[in-house]
Amino acid sequence: MIPNHLAIILDGNGRWAKKRFMPHSMGHRAGAQTLRKISYEIEALGIKYLTVYAFSTENWSRPHNEVREIMNMMRDYFQQYIDDSKKNNMRMSFIGDLTRLDPDLQEKLAILTDITKDKNGLHVVLAVNYGGRDEIVRATRKLARAVCEGSLKPDDINIETLNGVLDTYPIPDPDLIIRTGGDLRLSNFLLWQLAYAEMYVTDTLWPDFNSAELQKALASFSGRTRRFGGRP
Fold first, then answer.
1. Is 55 inside any structural domain?
2. 59 catalytic, yes or no?
3. What is the pTM assigned to this prediction?
4. Count of CB atoms within 10 A of residue 26's CB?
5. Which position among 4, 11, 84, 173 bears the catalytic label?
6. pLDDT tens-digit map of 119-144
């Protein structure tokens, strides 16, 4: 059994670089290349959706030079995906508040989304300037505006209504969340969507994550009995 939708928190890039006496930026670049490679392996396994935490709303508080380098890395990384799109069948989309990104970076994201929108391979969703709480607040504002405009009644708001205005709609919720780097927390990632996801945590730092580590996570997932709301 493999998950239909896999989510990953790519943690440990900075620690990976520190262990090698490198600047943090080298860890982020190594992590970007790991994601590029592992995406092809995930697609080959038949997994339909991959959502990864690329840059959180909290990451802006990091040192200015590190944030600048991450943004430059993303420019290079997204250009690689634009080039790769000519020879692969992956679809790319983005979640989060993209308005805070520099205009040229927003343009790359828009181009990548547009040129891959009709592809039917692995759907890679990158969370950029994303936070679970921020997403829920933005979704709530959409519903509040609809109520004020008279197109929605307060009593008609339910789970399906809220789900329909989240960044991830209409993508199904993740079945499995992998966190690298050993920390046992969600770090404000997909707080609504992960309600029933299985969790797998590994001490492996993200740049060292490889096919063998992926298979360990999937083996753990396949050995579990999935239960929802207490039902066997």
1. yes
2. yes
3. 0.95
4. 19
5. 11
6. 999 999 999 999 999 999 999 999 99
